[in-house]
Automatic annotation (TrEMBL):
Record keywords, A-Z: Acyltransferase, Transferase
Organism, scientific name: Evansella caseinilytica
Lineage: Bacteria, Bacillati, Bacillota, Bacilli, Bacillales
Annotated PANTHER family: ACETYLTRANSFERASE
Alphabetical list of Gene3D superfamilies matching this protein: 3.40.630.30
KW Acyltransferase (keyword) present: yes
Name assigned to this protein: Acetyltransferase (GNAT) family protein
CDD domains the record matches: NAT_SF (cd04301)
A Pfam entry, by short name: Acetyltransf_1
Domain N-acetyltransferase, chain residue ranges per copy: 40-190
Keyword Acetylation listed: no
Amino acid sequence: MSGGTSLLFRRKQLKQREQRMRKWAAVTDTNSIYKVEKFVDVGTDKASIIAFLKANDRSFFPPLSKRVKLEKYAEKLMKEAVLLIVKEPAAARLLAMLGFYCNAPQYNSAVITYLAVAPAARGKGIGKTLLRECIRYVRQFPGMQSIETRTWAGNHAAVKMYTSLGFKIVDRSFDRGEKEHSLELRLKLNGIHDGPHDGPTAFVEDQ
């Protein structure tokens, strides 16, 4: 197989894999009263996604709105990412959302770029439920070797949650000002990827 043909074949495989991912059905965590759902239809409830981003903007350091336009970011998440959401059991209000990409083929990695739980819903294990579901989802695909994310060092609750599920801190970068720095965390799915990536970072927006 020539180099050009091989590249086209690889792209076809990646496209098929992404299509399978985006058809994933909603699931329920049997250990929780909260239903974890996959946001499927771009036009279904865009307003609630934007409202959630705005309501939780200052849960991030620096606020996400300082780095991206939230409306555009919502469109990007709904179009390109896998979005897992948790709604209030008796209403349609969003309580939590996790967004991740499975489109870093050069690393065979899934990348979590957004995870937030509404303040009133924190301390109930919802964030960990979403993260477990993300891990379960990514493990369905044999080629995926790791899951990665970034957060700031002072986000102790998130760091504790990630490390409790097997993520390791693999790199640090001082890109959030003088008083704070970023941590890169990675969960190895197949026993590889021990250090930071060589080459361009896969992270654009993060928590």
